[in-house]
Amino acid sequence: MAEPRSYEDLVAEAEAEPRELVRVERRDKIAIVTLDDPAKLNVLSAPLTIQLRRHLQALLADRGVRVLILTGADPAFSAGGDVRLMIKAQAVLRSGEDGAIALWRWIRREFGGIARLLAQSDTTCIAAVNGAAAGVGLAFAYACDLLLASDRARLVPAFGNIGLVPEVGTSWLLTRRVGYHRAFELFASGREISGAEAAAMGLVNQVVPHDRLLAEASAWAERVLALPDGIVTMTKPLLRRAADMTWEQAIAMEEFAEPMCFTTLGHRSAVDRFLAGRRPL
Fold this sequence. Notes:
Radius of gyration: 20 Å
Strand order of the largest sheet: 1-2-3-5-7-10
CATH superfamily of the largest domain: 2-enoyl-CoA Hydratase, Chain A, domain 1
Number of helices: 12
Distance between the termini: 57 Å
């Protein structure tokens, strides 16, 4: 096959892959999306990346899906960027007409596109990290709303080890979670972080036994489903943006959102249950 010369060539080559590398399971209002190339540790090859983005695009636009769980086929969540794809990227730089713009398109539309879908959709997204999560794979987990890790999970922010800067939102999240100095330490060392250490650092919400990971993610999904749909939909963007607002901006946003909640059946039903002495959802 000829060397790729453009972003379009990379996409066309990826679309020619006959294997299904992403598995989707629907459980009523819950969708479980599994990266499914375990022999290669679910590395983000061009075909897997294209398939993942398209599945997410469809599922997150589906109003019947209220919670999406993202996980990997054992033994890994995702080993991150595919070195073979990086070599093809070098070929695009050598022979293409668009130079770095072609790679910018891939990073923005595919890798960045996936992170934006997870972070900016109205759907609650839960990452169930079952093993190693490195580089861009880790960034996809970070883009979710809840991050659960099995006791076999290993977080690997190892961008520097392959001569790259933190990408796909990783620099934003790490500095906000652990501060600049610890974020720089993690980047410079490229060391693996166990699930327990990640929880202690505030990088994951919860660590669970490996064989209970999907069950616990599903339990969280059920907790979300027990809440009124519209309230969760409004809360996600509110919380996402609050960290970068002033206090006055955040309180103003809440003041506009709260009266809308009073108009919903979900709020009225919850109040009725409370007044009737039943435990609220």
